[in-house]
Structures are given as C-alpha cells and as structure tokens.
Amino acid sequence: MLQAPQRTALSGPALIRLLARLADVDVPESRQSLSDRLSQWLGWTDAIALSSALNGAPPAVPAGARAFGRAEEDECARVRVSLTKSVAGDSVLVASKRRGFAHPQAHPYGNPHAHMPSQPAPADAAPDYAVFRQRYQALQQSMETAVGTLRVRLRSLLAAKTPALARLAVLDAVMERALGERERNLLGSVPGLLAGHFERLRAAEQAALAAAVASDDVAAVTPGAWLDVFRKDMQSVLLAELDVRFQPVEGLLAALRTS
Q1: Pfam families, from UniProt (predicted)?
Q2: Which of 180, 175, 245, 238 lies closest to 34 in space, CA to CA?
Q3: How far is CA 39 from CA 32, 33, 46, 51, in A?
Q4: Is residue 61 part of a domain?
Q5: How far is Cα 103 from Cα 201, in angstroms, rounded to an integer?
Q6: Alpha helices in 89-128 (DSSP H)
Q7: How many structural domains compose the chain?
Q8: Is 169 within a domain?
Q9: What domain range is 192 assigned to?
Q10: Helices (H), ranges, 115-223
Q11: What is the pLDDT of residues 172-220, one digit of tens each?
C-alpha cells in the first residue's frame, strides 16, 4: 500500500519549524556550515570589520564604569515580558466570541411540519489580511527597537569588564551592523508567508460550511472559527520570532554573568 511521504523533521529554531508547518512546505536541512553561510552573507567591508574585531588589539577598559548587576537582568526580563504581553493582548489578535449556526425554527405561520432552511447565523465579518499584516509589522518594529536598545546597553557593560569581554562587545556590534539588513529582510517576509495560511484557513472553512449546509448538518461547523485559529497561529509565530530576536541578548547576558 502506498504511503504519503513524511516530511523531514527540522532541528532549527521553533520559528522555522512553525512556519514550515503553517506554510505546508517541506524545508530540507541546510548542508552548509555556519562559516560558509556567513561568508555568503557578509560583504567585504563587513569581513574587514569582523577581522579587525577578532584580530585587533582589544579595546581599553574604561575606569569607573557601572558594574553589571541585578538591575540589568531585571530590565531584560521586563522588556521580554512586556513584548510578550503586547503579542498576547493585542486587540487584533484576541479571539472574538462568535455565534454558531441558527437551529431550524418553526414556520412563522404556525405550520408545525414546515421548517426554515438551516442557515448560518450572522458572524463577524472577516477582516482583510492587510489588518493583520500591518499589526504584525508594528509588533516586529517594537521588538527590533527594544532588543536593539538592550544590546547597546549590555555591550556598554561588557566593554567595562575585561579586554576579552570588550572585544566581545565590539564583535556583537559588528555582527549587528553586518547582519541587521539580512535579518530585517528575512523576518520581513514572515507576514507574506502568513498571508497564505490566512487564505487557506478561510477557504477550508468556506468549503466546510457549504458541505454542512448541503448535508443539513449545520451544527458541525462554527462560522468564523478559522479566524480565531489564525489569530492563535499568528501569536505563536510572533512569540517564536521574539525568541529568535532575544538570542543575542541572552548571549550577552550569559557573558556578563560569567565575568
């Protein structure tokens, strides 16, 4: 008996695995090493800056700089919680209460054997995807700004520790400049991938509604449920993206904790 081919399980970040599932595509594992991919992403000016950061003399450590402490840990945690709450509580992404199908009703003229045809009760009008695209992009911008501010703050603390950590701070700044545009382009493509998921969910429910009406099994489908499924999926993608964006912050924090 023929069996449908199974997709290869991805081992990358949760964001990649989630997008592959929602887009219904099979994403093969990359066979390139990280160094090979970086060589393709970095321009020659970026390569020079990176080489200087790795091989040049470490920056001098300023005297009397503020030490790393609990306040910085708490601030990073506060920012992450705030961004998470922004996604979870966003008015565009919060699921709405919807009414289901209307049950058959008695004929208005009193014939007990005649029933009105089963029809769906009015549900909230489905918004255009542009509303979700704009909200996703706004939340992305909030993440980028907040994470960028944290990285600058943590780099300044690293630079005040030891020459080795000061070099790490310079290296992080170089990598942020070199990969920032590529990161924005890649993450900026996510709303486009979600647009396809939005349309597939809507089309699937429309087909299910038509089949339910044709079979007079109107209780089997809740009109508008697809939109709440999409909202939940979009929240999951945003939170997975937040995890990816926070990785450099977590790395800088780990370096500070061990110093």
Answers
A1: DUF3348 (PF11828)
A2: 175
A3: 11, 10, 10, 12
A4: no
A5: 25
A6: none
A7: 1
A8: yes
A9: 42-56+68-89+127-258
A10: 129-159, 163-188, 190-214
A11: 998 898 888 889 999 999 999 999 999 999 999 999 988 888 887 777 7
